[in-house]
Automatic annotation (TrEMBL):
PANTHER family: BETA-LACTAMASE-RELATED (PTHR43283), BETA-LACTAMASE-RELATED DOMAIN-CONTAINING PROTEIN (PTHR43283:SF7)
Descriptive protein name: Beta-lactamase-related domain-containing protein
SUPFAM superfamilies attached to this UniProt entry: beta-lactamase/transpeptidase-like (SSF56601)
Domain Beta-lactamase-related: 58-316
One Pfam short name: Beta-lactamase
Length: 358
């Protein structure tokens, strides 16, 4: 496959590549608000606030029934999503899959996907659905941090049989999207999600394709920089089964399929959570009724969108890092982590769920 057009997922690596989108920033309405957390069925939210004080949390937003319950910190500040980007891409896949532009059973060979140094014949038999469940069986070096430099030997696992969280898969999923739809990821996001949802803080020029320099793979990471409140709209859209203000934004069938259990928690490693099409499934480790059907976008340093359909609840947690840090990390210029640690998702969510009274 040749280089994808300006700002695309196989763009040349070097200094940060800006997404070349002609879309304008989307400034829409925010969530309506509950009169109080109690009116939304919550008890004392103060325990949650006390829990957040010593953490590196920079913002948090709770939405229930499509209305804002409570916020912490600056929910308007856009910052780096890290791996939560993958769940956003999964949402973008819905329309093209439903229209037949992307076929989940298409193989890398059929799509013309190759990489520097060449893929093995067995690797080229990986299907799009294998890529979307991190079971491609391709252990080529990734074009951005989060690859498998010390992973399994090339060709050691048949595609579709072994889970490995590997940015090669995730970055190639971006290239597949752009090749099959003939649009950039960020352009599609602006048109198909940010615009219809009325995102208030989205800046098209801030989104970036990033990867190692010198390059290790032709496929870069597609990195989003969004605010807490705009991320909450993505979560609410998923809770709504893809519907927003009477309009079907993401096909309902795709919302169901992309959050169904495809990889059991025992296969995913230390987290124990199940995995779907780039959504984590906490119900594998949290068995209460509140967690039934739950799914989450999880990103490094504490970037989370957690959706609990059983409670009609969306929680977004941010631990903002600077753009400069995010760019340096994804160019391979630093492996350091920001000071303050990473606030863990499950303990925070346990505290929030414990306050729900009705």
């Amino acid at each position: 496959m040749g280089m994808i057009g300006a700002g695309g997922a196989a763009a040349m690596i070097g200094e940060p590549v800006l997404a070349r989108s002609t879309a304008t920033s989307a400034h829409g309405a925010g969530f309506n608000r509950w009169a109080s957390p109690a009116a939304a069925g919550f008890g004392d939210i103060g325990a949650v606030e006390q829990m957040l004080f010593p953490l590196a949390t920079t913002s948090l937003m709770i939405v229930r029934g499509g209305k804002q319950v409570w916020t912490y910190g600056d929910v308007t500040r856009p910052s780096y999503l890290a791996s939560s980007r993958k769940s956003v891409l999964s949402m973008l896949y819905g329309g093209p899959v439903s229209r037949g532009e992307i076929r989940l059973d298409a193989t890398l060979a059929e799509l013309g996907i190759d990489d520097d140094g060449g893929l093995l014949p067995i690797e080229k038999t990986a299907r799009v659905r294998d890529i979307l469940t991190a079971r491609s069986g391709v252990y080529h070096a990734a074009g951005s941090p989060g690859g498998v430099d010390n992973g399994p030997a090339r060709g050691s696992h048949k595609p579709g049989t072994f889970f490995l969280y590997n940015n090669w898969d995730f970055n190639v999923a971006g290239a597949i999207f752009e090749t099959c739809t003939h649009q950039t990821i960020f352009g599609a996001f602006a048109r198909d999600l940010a615009g219809p949802l009325g995102m208030q803080d989205f800046d098209p020029s801030r989104q970036r394709m990033l990867g190692y320099a010198p390059r290790r793979s032709r496929y870069l990471g597609y990195h989003f920089f969004l605010s807490c409140r705009d991320m909450a709209k993505l979560g609410q859209l998923m809770i709504n089964r893809g519907r927003w203000n009477g309009r079907q934004i993401v096909p309902a069938a795709w919302v169901a399929e992309s959050t169904a259990l495809h990889v059991r928690g025992r296969e995913t490693g230390t987290s124990g959570m199940g995995y779907s099409y780039y959504w984590w499934l906490p119900s594998e480790v949290r068995k209460g009724a509140a967690w039934a059907g739950s799914f989450a976008a999880l990103g490094n340093y504490g970037q989370y969108i957690v959706c609990l359909p059983a409670l009609d609840l969306v929680v977004v947690h941010r631990r903002a890092v600077t753009d400069e840090f995010a760019i340096a990390r994804n160019l391979g210029r630093t492996a350091a982590s920001p000071a303050g640690g990473e606030p863990a998702m499950l303990p925070i969510m346990d505290a929030i769920v414990a306050t729900v009274r009705s």
